[in-house]
Amino acid sequence: MRPFFVLLLSLTLLPFSSPWRSSLEEELASNLNKRRAPPEMQETATALLLQRLLPSHSSSFKFQIDSKGICGKSACFYISNIYNSKHGQPEILIQGSTGVELSSGLHWYLKYWCGVHISWNKTGGVQLGSVPSPGSLPRVDKNGVKVVRPVPWSYYQNVVTSSYSFVWWTWGRWEKEIDWMALQGINLPLAFNGQEYIWQNVFMDFNLSREDLTDFFGGPAFLAWARMGNLHGWGGPLSENWLNDQSILQKLTVTRMMEFGMTPVLPSFSGNVPAALKKLYPSAKITRLGDWNTVNGDKRWCCTYLLDPSDPLFIELGKAFINKQIEGIDNSNQMIPYRSDTFNENAPPTNDPSYISSLGAAVYKAMSQGNKDAIWLMQGWLFSSDAAFWKPPQMKALLHSVPIGKMIVLDLFADVKPIWKQSSQFYGVPYVWCMLHNFGGNIEMYGILDAISSGPIDARRSSNSTMVGVGMCMEGIEHNPVVYELMSEMAFRGEKVQVKEWLKSYSKRRYGRAITEIDEAWQILYQTIYSCTDGIADHNKDYIVEFPDMSPPTKQSLLSIRRDLSRMSPRFFLREISLQLPQPHMWYSQKEVVNALKLFLDAGNSISGSLTYRYDLVDLTRQALSKLANQVYLDALTAYEMNYLNTLNLHSKKFLGIIEDLDTLLASDDNFLLGTWLKDAKSLAMTSSEEKQYEWNARTQVTMWYDNTKTNQSKLHDYANKFWSGLLKDYYLPRASMYFNYLSESLKANKSFKIEEWRKSWISYSNMWQSSTKEYPTAATASRCPFKPFKTNKPLRSPTQRPSLFHCLASSAHGESNASANAFLESDPRSLSQPQSDLPGFRYKGPVHPEPSTESKIERVIFDFRFLALLAVGGSLAGSLLCFLNGCIYIVEAYKVYWTSCVKGVHSGQMVLRLVEAIDVYLAGTVMLIFGMGLYGLFISNAPPGVPPVLDRALKGSSLFGMFSLKERPKWMQISSLDELKTKVGHVIVMILLVKMFERSKMVVITTGLDLLSYSVCIFLSSASLYILHNLHKE
């Protein structure tokens, strides 16, 4: 069986042979491969990686850079057996084009022959328990296994990843990341650390002082946007300690990348300059850009200065920067690609193609004068984010401003909105097919596994393809490990991946064994969470982490949003419609996802010790609870709009309770802690002032993000929101509590919602929290998860102390209108905790729950008499049934009379009288039916008026053996007042009277013209009365 599996695996990995592999691509690959580290250095780097990853097997593998031409002109790795090896000697030989291919070959062998799983530590880490002991490693096919890259490059990082994920890293964490990159086959990583150190030296060479740069660089957590010219000074200034440390870190990371044979991508000059340069060079073409996301155009942070690429000073600065980089890093002249995004979210001053072409040529000239072999690597985000500007003439002008082969474009969002399809393969310019996937480092389970498994293949096989690589360009990392493992594999996949089968292998490797329940759960997750095809970028906007900053919306808006959130189609998304309330992304069936969670829980006893299992279980529970909270939030706002104070307070408590439960849940896992983020930030400080600054940067990025006024939150607030324990309880919980308190007070005082006061209170609290120095745990606390937990050596709350949270989720997902979730929260024996903030001026207030007064008790008793109406309802429905049956009897008798008359040849008119009697009785039955339903709707039913059909429980399953199902309630059932009931009953009574009139007219003898005229007038008046009655109540 194993040889067949190996043969099948090898065949599926063969590259697709097509004319698209042109001489241009081969020349590009040859240029980028120049001057790599010596083979011995790359082999040593891979051996040391193995020592760090699996020290017990450090002598079990032999690594060898391919010198025999096994790979030919392509990049590949080749795995073969070493026979007759003695104990302690290598058993497996891995050969490859570079150290990256050697590392990838090691990873491939460990995955598919030893069942190993490797992911980031924060997503569960590695699973190595399935590796056999040294001397017993599995053998591959006797002919070996060769895996060839279908495209030469595997790119990694977004320009903002350095701020959202890497900002507080030390060399120890970077070393692990570079190991991970090598194992995943990444050979074209971004290397952006420490560039501010170089820029300071460059600008000082151009006569600027350190003081001139004080408000130029952003703070540590906001450097990515300062580098792109979006902002300046925010979170700064940068200390000399920071500049020096980051410069050293850059040298270490770039050196290690080169040791593996990677080609690091370095920064270059994009035109962003300090304000002081304009004073020193008054003749230079320096313009001030417009505002970028400040609240009121505050010049302290916005409106940076851009040096026109056509100005000679642009080339001088660009050349000087690249030369400084080459001086600072040994052998950096081998690093040919340079990133420059001059026009990222900053459009050129004119759309004239000739002008755009001259700008692009100037940007490249500045690179090439510093390094004659330079290649411009440009992200294609601008073509998507500003598509209105970048039409085909403008795109072509920029792309062709550089010699073909000297520019590579990152098709940044190809997993959702590929540009290569609409740009004729970037008009002949080589590009990298990239997955963007994540915004702001948000924590949300999301992905498009089908697009990942087939998109790069389709792009590479397309006619005249210029694709030269695959890439991962997420804004933040350390989440959704299944997505990044599959995407990494696409660097070595020549055929489309069968995701269902691949997931079975993934599941077995991730948890160390095959488990039926887990396999079933992953198939559900594949069809739901990881099958988002709505074309929308997934930026987490769940109400807990991105709380709406607005007055409560109208009932119509709420009903529309609720309808959208409740749809069970996994292909649905809340598309952009003109509603006030922000809409969370919901593209799958919550019911199915909760079923997957149940399967995860059922499997807990067998893999309770697995860290990967624990991470996935916590993350999946977090996802389900967060989506449940969206519905509870809408329940609260609906109660407010309907002036139901007690109901508002009830749902407010539920929403806050979910936040508390989430905080408790996430506190039980090391990977979801605010304290770790803050500790890492403070650990880089060398002085107390730096520690305070770095902590402020860390806190601000994940909350308010940018500037605010007393009554206006930042336009980017919650962009980088996180589901972290500590952040939930001390930031998101007080914010929601304040809002609900203002709503409650608004109803109690019968006044409009005080949005300005809410904003003042909330923004003041947020700013104090950003400046706080409260410490948070950096290690998981004893698990107190509010659902029946899996086995663990940590103390657990007894599941009998509280109803099962999972039962709450399951019932909610099965369409019980959150009834079980409500019961769970209502029966919670503990009162809502009152967290006391360490910040001055803040006092936490829970939602208001007034004690029932004597008056309200009397009203309740009186109101309960409404149930007497059930007697009338029952009697009316029973009478209606008897009337309909009696009418059927009249119909049968009418037919009997008819057939008897036909046989005898005598027609007495009795058949018509019977039919009229039947109509009369049917109408009486209709009256009783409407009367009974109307009484129920007025006095018993609690369905709100105007409820959308998808949420109308009366319509669910209402059909006759599957036929005649209603899409909405009939108009005659929509009774909201006693007047409406009387009107509808009155209509039917008039119909009965008309029928009686026609019945009596049968006995009238018409002998004269006056008789006929009177009869005609009677008919006319009857018809007119019906018409008038209809129009009196026509809406």
UniProtKB/TrEMBL annotation:
Residues 826-853 are annotated as: Disordered. It comes from the Eukaryota. The keyword Signal applies. InterPro entries: Hex-like_dom2 (IPR029018), NAGLU (IPR007781), NAGLU_C (IPR024732), NAGLU_N (IPR024240), NAGLU_tim-barrel (IPR024733), UPF0114 (IPR005134). Residues 155-493 form the Alpha-N-acetylglucosaminidase tim-barrel domain. Residues 502-782 form the Alpha-N-acetylglucosaminidase C-terminal domain. The chain crosses the membrane at residues 867-892, 912-939, 1010-1029. Pfam families: NAGLU (PF05089), NAGLU_C (PF12972), NAGLU_N (PF12971), UPF0114 (PF03350). Keywords: Glycoprotein, Glycosidase, Hydrolase, Membrane, Signal, Transmembrane, Transmembrane helix. One of its GO terms (biological process) is system development. Residues 46-138 form the Alpha-N-acetylglucosaminidase N-terminal domain. Belongs to the glycosyl hydrolase 89 family. PANTHER family: ALPHA-N-ACETYLGLUCOSAMINIDASE (PTHR12872:SF1). This is Alpha-N-acetylglucosaminidase. The lineage of its organism: Eukaryota, Viridiplantae, Streptophyta, Embryophyta, Tracheophyta.
